[in-house]
Amino acid sequence: MRILGIESSCDETGVAIYDDEKGLIAHALHTQIPMHAQYGGVVPELASRDHIKRIVPLVRLVLEKADMKLSDLSAIAYTAGPGLIGALLAGAMEAGALAYGLGIPSVPVHHMEGHLLAPMLEDEKIQFPFVALLISGGHTMLIKVEKPGQYELLGQSVDDAAGEAFDKTAKLLGIPYPGGPGLEKLAAKGKSGTFNFPRPMIKNPNCDFSFAGLKTAVLNATLEHKDDLKDVKADIARGFTEAIASTLEIKCKRALKQTGIKTLVVAGGVSANSDIRNALKALMDSIHGKIYFARKEFCTDNGAMIAQVGMLRFKAGQIGDNSIKVFPRTPLSNLKPL
């Protein structure tokens, strides 16, 4: 069986084909970053319109890559949420139209479940259960995963997500959108320990996060050094990145200890950051555990993760009714078990 996956939750249009025996066989992605960069962030209306333009050509492209026809598909999976409502509707309408026209089921997929299981796209098999750290522009969560479809929230951000903190800090330092990659490059030039920013909520016994205070600390540092900011930018970026990585490491260690699990899976756009990866690798080495990351190209939003989860849900009989239903917000706990 083969399933087509469509991702359109924000500013990436992703399409992929997943085979239940061979795995991922073709994928393609279009990013809207150049379009949104001039505005300093994603403009929802522009994002929606661009998805409408891009989805059909990308579907044709992945079918060509896979040497397939539409009639070879068993189902169409799409991101039903969470995300920008207009962007979600663009993907859902295309999926619904394809499914209706082909007489096959459509499969709604939770965007965060896609990220959560993205490391499973690699050849190395991940053993269950594991603790997952999801770090993206809109989410920072620790989740206990007993098996696909069975998730227990251990902790999450009570204010800004890690990705939001990266973007806002980058803006303070004059780094253009998207801020994450530019901030990482700047931090690499900085001196460690020059700025010791707070590690929020690390003394709390829970696994929740808070990054708003860290963002404020960076703001205060930029104001304090407004006359020589050019000279200390890299050091501020270094201190900020170290604070984020250290906080994530401490909270992951706590989650692993509380669950008794020694396998950590890390996914989401922010997980592409090298400092965060190195800190978490060091943590897992220290406890003789295993760590898995999504491939960097699958850290950002993509169709491959949607197609993979779509296949799991499709094989479990969890299909849609081909109506256009999306949800801008919904917790993972609302998902049916597989």
From TrEMBL:
Fe cation binds at H111, H115, D301. Binds 1 Fe(2+) ion per subunit. It catalyses: L-threonylcarbamoyladenylate + adenosine(37) in tRNA = N(6)-L-threonylcarbamoyladenosine(37) in tRNA + AMP + H(+). Keywords: Acyltransferase, Cytoplasm, Iron, Metal-binding, Transferase, tRNA processing. Its EC number is 2.3.1.234. It is found in: Cytoplasm. InterPro entries: ATPase_NBD (IPR043129), Gcp-like_dom (IPR000905), KAE1/TsaD (IPR017861), TsaD (IPR022450). It comes from the Bacteria. Substrate binds at L134, I135, S136, G137, G138, D167, G180, E184, N273. GO terms for molecular function: tRNA N(6)-L-threonylcarbamoyladenine synthase activity. Pfam families: TsaD (PF00814). SUPFAM superfamilies: Actin-like ATPase domain. PANTHER family: TRNA N6-ADENOSINE THREONYLCARBAMOYLTRANSFERASE, TRNA N6-ADENOSINE THREONYLCARBAMOYLTRANSFERASE, MITOCHONDRIAL. Required for the formation of a threonylcarbamoyl group on adenosine at position 37 (t(6)A37) in tRNAs that read codons beginning with adenine. Is involved in the transfer of the threonylcarbamoyl moiety of threonylcarbamoyl-AMP (TC-AMP) to the N6 group of A37, together with TsaE and TsaB. TsaD likely plays a direct catalytic role in this reaction. HAMAP family: TsaD. This is tRNA N6-adenosine threonylcarbamoyltransferase. The gene is tsaD.
